Amino acid sequence: MTLTENPFLAGNYGPVHEEHTATDLVVEGTVPAELRGRYLRIGPNPFVDPTGPYHWFMGDGMVHGVELGNGTVGWYRNRWVRTDEIARAMGESPVSGPTQPLYDASNTHVMGHAGKIIAFTEGSIPYELTPTLDTVRRTDFGGPLPNGLTAHPKIDPVTGEMLAFSYWFAEPYLTYHVIDATGKLVRSEPITIPESVMMHDWAITRDNVIFFDLPVVFDLEQQPFPFRWDDNHTPRVGVMPRTGGDADVRWFEIDPCYVFHPMNAFDDGDSVTVDVARHPTMFKRSSVGPNDGGAPTLDRWTIDLSAGKVREERIDERGQEFPRVNETLLGSRHRFGYAVGVVTRDAFDGTGYYKHDFVAGTSEAHSFGAGRVPSEFVFVPGEAATSEDDGWLMGYVYDAATDRSDFVILDAHDFTAAPVATVHLPARVPYGFHGSWIPDAQ
Ligand SMILES: [Fe+2]
Question: Could you say which DSSP state residue 140 is in?
Fold first, then answer.
């Protein structure tokens, strides 16, 4: 495959080459005055155009942010995370912090915890950022994190803890971590699994954590991304009491599939329910993928702890990914969930965005218009919310006609209505991964 054929360097997957600080942005509609803070989202953005094999998951990280307050937009900024290589390439001094265990990256998630803004890539030490997106330092939360950390820690909305894990190519293949509400790593527990698998994300409930031991295995022969599908790997989900250890994990076989992202999970008597974006396979034909088995569907797994079985149900056949809920309910039963529509091979080739009502058994679709493609959106609760969907949904929408992006705010309760606000940005925001709303008073 030549570089020009590499789908992860084409169209809006391709990198941007400038850092912007833009004020005086044109806004259509009205920014809700109660939104005081900043929406940050991160993604891959190679600093130097790759001259060899390149996979989307491996690119240098760039964070894009929009600051809101008093009904106005303060700024749009985009900044490369100053990994050591990026800092040197930009003529800056590298930041301090623990040495990376294997590779230096920061492209997958950005979230606020314990008054800090942290950017993550799995298998590496996270980076701390300022509210204006400058890189401060690498942080291991007091450590040690010899195998780095997942990019999908879960911040418990009740306790303020950040639960996390790390996975690795050598034993221990999996380690469970607890970072307390003050941002200190207080517990690390190795978990036994038979071999090294790509464990991108996981789920938590009030009482349990759920690990996904799925058939994408580590294989150094696969380059540039060292993982492949393996029919011989038994697909399992593991349920462990949050206060338990390796001996307490109960493993349950499921049908072969791959899950990058759960929507949410909750305890229900003797069962644990997990809603997931389920891919039929992953990296089966090649590790370039990603969706080589077809589009991911929205599925519900009901893990019956008494019977020792998992009931697997299809909630929605339509392709969708980047599922999110109102995260004040992370780990508790949710009524509503949101996911970005995807169609076939690429992660972003649809224009739809879905809101699911798990009580009514219905869903609504929001279209951003022809050629306008959303990335992940996040839910921000309203200041005086009276229902689970009382709040705002926000994210970036790429407009192919202008080759620029907008920052868009929807009213989650009035999902199919026109956006509450559309902020025109001076550049495009390449398709990326995950983000968070960081309120001023986090
Ligand atoms: Fe992810």
Answer: -
Give the number of other Cβ atoms within 10 Å of residue 372's Cβ.
18
256 touches 231 (CB < 8 A) = yes
CA–CA gap between residue 76 and residue 424 (Å, rounded) = 10
Rounded to whole angstroms, what are the CA distances from 413 to 27, 29, 378?
Answer: 21, 17, 14
Look up tokens 């569907």; give the residue.
297
Backbone angles phi, psi at 246, to 5 degrees: -50, -40
Length, in residues, of the chain: 442
pTM: 0.96
Number of CB atoms found within 10 A of residue 42's CB: 29
State how far the Cα of 73 lies from the Cα of 67, in Å rounded to an integer.
6
Tokens of 277: 């974006």
Using CA atoms, how far apart are residues 205 and 331, in angstroms rounded to an integer? 4
432 C-alpha vs ligand 1 centroid, how far in Å?
10
What distance in angstroms lies between residue 46's CA and the mean position of ligand 1's atoms? Answer: 18
Q: Which residues contact 245 (CB under 8 A, 6 or more apart)?
A: 189
CA distance 379 to 332: 16
Measure the CA–CA gap between 424 and 231, rounded to whole angstroms. 46
Kindly give the distance from the C-alpha atom of residue 58 to the centroid of ligand 1, in angstroms, as a whole number: 13
Q: How far is the CA of 71 from the centre of ligand 1 (A)?
A: 31
Instruction: Convert the pLDDT of each residue in 130-147 to its tens digit.
Output: 999 999 999 999 999 999
What digits encode the pLDDT tens for the residues 54-105? 888 888 999 999 999 999 999 999 999 999 999 999 999 999 999 999 999 9
Task: Tell me if 398 sits within 8 A of 425, measured CB to CB.
Answer: no
- Whether a cis peptide bond, with omega within 30° of 0, leads into 262 is no
Rounded to the nearest angstrom, the distance between the alpha carbon of 139 and the centre of ligand 1 is 20
What is the C-alpha separation between 129 and 137, in angstroms, rounded?
8
Tokens of 124: 């590496």
| Centre of ligand 1 from the C-alpha of residue 3, in Å | 25
Evaluate whether 442 touches 54 at the Cβ level (below 8 Å).
no
Given the structure tokens 């990914």, which residue do they identify?
321
